[in-house]
Specification:
By secondary structure, the chain is mainly alpha-helical. Strands 1-2 form a two-stranded antiparallel ribbon.
């Protein structure tokens, strides 16, 4: 029999957290569960950054061909036909999506922020659920916690070019670079980077210092 804890693990929630949420649910406490589900739901449709080819391109094409609304697959195809780098396109789309879900989370937290909470007439309306006894419970701030659940582990920050290039390297080469950067062996790392990625040595050296701050 599938339990809620098992289903949460299937959704990508780690075992200890899934167990804690299942325990809360068994005790009719749903604030943490509601918060997790809302936050993960917001992140769910943010485009992937898979290398060498992100999966969202094919998915959006399929959705467009099925007459799914909102997806402008002809415009997407025109961009690709014009030679737009698929990873640059991914980074731009993802940035727009992250900004959107952050704004949605903030709106859920503060639905009356536009009229302003400085007005006496502005209602103090907030997201909450009602338990069996009729008491209201709030899940806590969504927009404050949104960044922590970024699947990329970057807290919503855009992916830099050097981080993207690093992600496309073979695993053994990534390990060598990590080791050199941990030792602050900048010159050796820059030479290795130049062989793998290309570019002027000075640019490679700068890229290694930037990359070290991101790993």
């Amino acid at each position: 029999m599938t339990t809620i804890g098992g289903r949460l693990r299937q959704c990508g929630i780690d075992g200890a957290q899934a167990d804690a949420l299942e325990h809360d649910s068994a005790n009719k406490k749903y604030d943490r569960l509601l918060r997790q589900l809302l936050l993960r739901g917001l992140w769910a449709d943010v485009v992937d950054e898979d290398l060498p080819q992100p999966r969202w391109i094919a998915r959006w094409r399929d959705l467009g061909e099925s007459d799914f609304p909102f997806i402008n697959s002809p415009a997407l195809q025109r961009l690709l036909d014009a030679g737009v780098d698929v990873h640059d396109l991914t980074d731009v789309v993802r940035s727009a999506q992250v900004l959107t879900i952050y704004n949605i989370a903030q709106l859920l937290d503060e639905p009356c922020r536009d009229p302003g909470y400085d007005l006496d007439a502005t209602p103090d309306v907030q997201l909450a659920y009602m338990d069996e006894a009729g008491a209201l419970h709030r899940p806590g701030s969504l927009h404050d916690a949104l960044e922590e659940l970024d699947p990329a582990g970057r807290h919503g920050q855009p992916r830099t070019l050097e981080l993207r290039q690093f992600g496309g390297l073979p695993a053994d080469l990534q390990a060598q670079l990590r080791d050199l950067l941990a030792k602050q062996a900048w010159s050796q790392a820059a030479v290795l980077w130049k062989r793998a990625v290309g570019g002027e040595l000075a640019q490679c050296l700068a890229a290694m210092r930037q990359l070290a701050r991101q790993l």
